[in-house]
Amino acid sequence: MDRSRTAAHFDDRALLRPHGLIGSSAMQAGFPVLAGVFRACATEFGVNLADPMAELGTEQRCAQALVRAGFTDVRMAAESVRLPRTDEAQLWRLLSRSPHYPGLRTLGSGEPAGLEARFTFEARRAVDRDAVAALTAPVVYAFG
């Protein structure tokens, strides 16, 4: 894990009163499922997109980041959230414009349309197969 980047996530201690509490949340790595479908489809077009949740997407990684940033009395909680059902076109717009996926800029002319068609098809299949799994995401809550 890149310590400088991780520490920056939690380097707000200067904003806290002494013995203040910081809280953050992150989806677990690999979630939401439809973002994973998006990344898999992008790979088919030669673009490898990292999971933006990978760095802090486990209770252990969140706890370690807080401790490295100097927080004490670190506590974790986890639960699942239900994501709203949205149409695939709206989901495409959200994911394709995400700052987490700068690699999409390497797509050639016409490839974004092909990726969009592939993704919307696969996203619809994932939701049709198991909407609960596709639209539920485990979340890690971290406090220090």
From TrEMBL:
Source organism, top-level taxon: Bacteria
Designated name of the protein: Uncharacterized protein
Organism: Planobispora longispora
